Structure formats: C-alpha cells, structure tokens
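User: Modeling request: complex.
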Amino acid sequence: MRGLHVYVLAVVAALALLGAGHFNAYWLHVSIIAMYYGILAGSWSLLAGYVGLFSLSHTAFASIGGYTSALLVKWLGIPVLLGMGAGVAVCCALGGGIGWVCLRMSGPYLAIFTLGFSEIVRIVISSEDDVTAGMAGLHTAPLFRSATRVPYFYAAFALLAVSLLLMGLLVRSRWGLFLRAIREDEQAAGASGVAVARFRILAFAIASGFAGLAGGFYAHYIGIMTPGVGDLDEMAKLVVMTVIGGMERLPTAVGGAFLVEVLLELLRGYGQWRLPLFGVLLLLTMRFARNGLLTPPWLGLVWLGEARARPLAPARDLSEKDSAA
Amino acid sequence: MSWDYLFVQAANGAVIGVIYAMIAVGVTLIFSILKIVNFAHGDLYMLGGYCAYYIIEYLGVPPLGAMVMSMAALFVGAIVLERLMLTPLYSDATERKDEYGLIVTFGLAYFLRNSAVIAFGPFPLKPPSFIPGVQRFGNLVLTNDRLVAAGLGLLLIAALLYFMKWTIWGQALDAVSQSRDSAAIVGINARRFNSFAFGIGAALAAAAGALVAPIFSLAPDMGVLPNIHAYVIVILGGMGSVTGSIIAGILLGESESLFTAFFPDPTRAFAYTNAFGVLVLMIVLIFRPQGLFGRRHLRME
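Assistant: Request completed. Predicted assembly structure:
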C-alpha cells in the first residue's frame, strides 16, 4: 500500500479527534501542551534539521508571538485571532531580520548569536514590568469562552495539522530541496544556483512565524504569559524533544515532542529528576543513535508502505516476492 | 554619583574581568584543540564553585585547598565526560561534527544545570571567605576576597601561559592545535591531549567558580551569563591570545560595572547590565561572523 505512513497518521489523528471528548481534563491539557511543543519542534526541525541553522532563539520567538498577541488584545481590544495573526506577522518579520543579520554566521556562531538574542528578549520582558508585568505574569484574554478544554484541543489539533501540512509541502517542494542543499554545503548550493541568502532568510522567517503562532495559541490558552516561556530551559527542552525524536524529519520531530511531553507527565512521580534524566537521554541519543529514536520506526513504516508498490525495484523486493510466492 | 562609587565599581569590574578571562581562556583552549565551542563551560564553572563549597563544608579543608581539590576533581570529571561523550568528534565516520559538538555540549549544560538544582538546591549558597576582612585604599574599600580572586586568577592564567610555552606537554598541546596529523607523526598521542585540554579548561573554570563563590553566591544557573561573556572576551581578545583575553576580560568587566553605575534607572540597571554584555557579543558577531576563532590554528600566547 503506497503511502502507508500517511494512512497510519490519518487513522491516529482520527482516533485522537474522536477520542478527545472522552479524555479527562488532565490528559486533554497534556495533549494540548504536547501539540504546542509539536508545532515548535516541527518548525525548529525545519530550521535546524533541514537547513542546518542551529538557532537557539526559537522559544524566544514563541514568547514574542505570545506577548505581542496578548498585549495587542489587551490594549486595542482586537479579537484574539487577529492578535495571534499579528504575533505571527511580528515573528516572521523579526525572524527574517535575525536571519538576515546572521547570514554570514554558521554552526556554533549562529547558535551563540541566537542564544544572545533570546537572552536579551528574556531580560527585556522581565525588566519592563510596567508593560509586560514581568515575572508576575501577564494575564491574557482566553481564546474560547468555554468551561472545558475540548475546543482548545481541536484548535491546537487544527493548528498543528495545518502547520505540519504547510511545512510538509514546503520541504517536499523544490524549495525544500534548496533548503537541504544549503545544509549539506552552502557554497556548493550557491554555485548550483540556489539563492542561499534568500532561502536562509526565508527559512528563518517561516520557522519563526510558526513559533509565533504556537506562542500566540499558548498565551491565549494558558491565560498567563511569563518570561519563562522563552527562556534557555524551554529552548533546551525543545532541543531535547526534537533531537530525541529525530531532527531531520518533521514527523519524527513532532513525535519526539509528544513522546517527551507524555513521558514528562508519566514520570511526574520522579519530580525534578525527570529533567536531568532527559538530558541523559539526549546525550545517549546523540552518542548512539544520532538520527533520533523515532527515525528507524518511521522509516520502517515508510518502507513498509512502499515495498510492495514497486515490484521491479532491486534485490530486496524481488526476494521478498519470491518468499511470498 | 561620587567618585568613590565609581572607583569601587571600577575595582569590582577589574576583579570580575579576571574571572571572565579565566573562563574565556578555558573556552579558547578547548576550541583550539577539540575544535568545538563548549556550551557547557559555564556549568563546569558552576560545578567547580559547588565542589569547593562542599569540600569546605564537609571535609573542613581551608578555602585555598578546597579550590585546588575542586580543580583536580573537575579535571578528572571533565576527562571522563570527554571520553564518554566527545570521542565521535575525532572519528572520520561522524558527519557534521560542528552540530554534534554543539548539541552534545548544549545537552551537557542542560543536564548539569538541572542536576545541580536537585543536588545543591535552588537557593544561593555562600562558602566562607578566603581571608576575611577588607582593605582600605584611601576611600576605596575592597574585600579581601575580591583581591584574592583577582590575584589568584592572574596567577593561574600566568601558570597556564608558562605551561603552554615552556613545558613539553604545553608544546605538545600547541602542536596538536596546529595539526593533529603532524603531531601524530612526531609521536604525540592526539587523543590523549584532547582529554587533557578539556580537563585543563574545566579545571580553570572550576578555579574561577571557587574564587567567585565567596564574593557572589553559588546558584545552579550562575554559569549561563559568564559563559556568554566568555565568548565576548574570546572574540574581543584577539583569538586565542591569553594576554588579549585578560585585557578584554577586564575591559568587559569595567564597562559592565560602569554601565551599571551610569544606567539612568537603578532598579533595572542590574538586569540590563547582563543584557549589555550580550549585546556587545551580538554586535561583534555581526561584524566578525567567523569572529570567535577566525583562524583554524590558535596559538596560546
């Protein structure tokens, strides 16, 4: 069955949608937060996994998106959806700006630069407390006037699905090829006619826009924004999720976010020990399974779907046909 | 604002600058040998401070001895970490080594910081002073701890310089940093010197942590900003030049202290002081994108 992995994802998604009404409030909350991280992990893998831009300001953009939206809604009284849109626009613009500024940086330099940017964002947000309410937290307008979390679940699901769809289309397109070419060798890509500068800026703008979207949703779901949303620990958590899942593919990155978030909840009994535990898991993943823990099963699934679709493909498929006969 | 206040701020800036320089020299050493930017260096500094604290608390060792023991502990610990985690960097089978070094040291930093919160608690701790009391120079009052920190810091950096320049092990390190293959041809075991360089860098960071502990308090996240400052210094200080690092460190410490003194809104001055150092880093990186270590070979001089 060609495209088996797509069907499997669709079935899982359908089950999740149908089952949402039966989840208790606690697991609904966990899955909503997991989907928030899912959008972040997906868009970060677009940046770090596909283009090779190891940015450490991704959660800072989520926090910028959240604060922009929350503040605009508070000051101008605009609808929440419009505020979230504005947050996305601001993040796209700022992300593009950061992408432009660090065009000539690569690897660790880019990481240091974006780390600096996110520290400045955090410091400004916590210090300017007459605007952002600082460490006390900014109260935000809710997205839905609803007593239960079910509408939020569907909204998060829709956002995640649309984000993944758009990013998936991007990475499968010709542009996606350009992006991966930039990761492999920037100079070779440039020599082959890829507008490296334009695509690096584009990748930054798009990924930051999705981070802003996730942040905006988070702000209006949780009801309170704190500087902690964009701090270094959140960024580290995002790196842990994406790398454990597999940062070079969107589905594995998002799967990593789900896996880590659910494990974090299941292991709640271990309290604070969970965080260093995931640090160790990250180190082990990097040391022994650099493609991520979810990549082999995912590739297996994809392969399973495609194996029978091409009977004339070389050796392995033929031998399988023989044994089946 | 009085002149006295400015002098105190300037003196404090110089002390902090020496501490920054110690961390920066470690970052440079590790980069020049292992070719990675160590994102966990600030956390090794934090660990060194706590290590000294607990040695003083439980073993009753005087602060100076505790500092040396903490350096030794971090030296060994860092070598173990390097053996466990960083060996893929030296194999040709590893693709995109930059990315590997980055994620591993970043993950290590996350692990160490969160373990520290559990092991040492989130509350600030303060070990006893090296030498209690203060020194007066006219109107300028400085605690002995600050003088000890600056003096010992400079002494340790000088010792490292001597080691790099005049001992055979130091020369071997220099050889490895110039060319791994050529060093191997003349019989230097490059892998051993990778561990050695990582250990020395960590030991220097540990000394910095132990020296800073009585001045400021120890906290699990105390390493984050000094880590960023170390990058600023390495860029400003002329790529691996140790004297440059000391000068750049003191300059950064000074400009930060004076920034705090002159910032118009005193309630926010401290927070924005940290932002100031970060901003300097970002601006320097914009103009020197390969800035940190522009040359492939770094001479420690």
